Amino acid sequence: MKDIIHTEQAPAAVGPYSQAVAAPAGARTVYLSGQIGLDPATGELVSDTFDHEVRQAFANMSAVVAAAGGKLENVVKLTLFLTDLGNFAQANAIMAELIPQPFPARSTVGVAALPKGARFEVEAILAL
């Protein structure tokens, strides 16, 4: 489904991600917009806990993945945005729990702010 690329000539992954992922030839590529921890019914952030916000953002992303005709196994690239990189280990642990192996490629970016006061956002690229 996806080809994991690894080399000893670059640093090993320090979390639940791969150095690189190649999509299979002829795969349909789907680019997902970022998802934050909004409750789909209310449009408001789910709670004031970082854990719940991250889990809801991944649940929202999973719903879009399914609407595109995919599964989490089809994710080849994730980008995580955090307003506080001090929460990186917690976001990393939740991602490792929710995203199946082999892990997609991933970038994590510290940002000053996110929409609606969110502390976490996730975007993805799928290969279907």
UniProtKB/TrEMBL annotation:
Family note: Belongs to the RutC family.
Any one Gene Ontology cellular component term annotated for this protein: cytosol
Q: Which organism is it from?
A: Verticiella sediminum
Q: What protein name is recorded for this chain?
A: RidA family protein
Which GO molecular-function terms appear in the entry?
deaminase activity
Domain of life assignment: Bacteria
Q: Which Pfam families match?
A: Ribonuc_L-PSP
Q: Which NCBIfam families match?
A: Rid family detoxifying hydrolase
Q: Kindly give the InterPro entries that the UniProt entry links to this protein.
A: RidA (IPR006056), RutC-like_sf (IPR035959), YjgF/YER057c/UK114 (IPR006175)
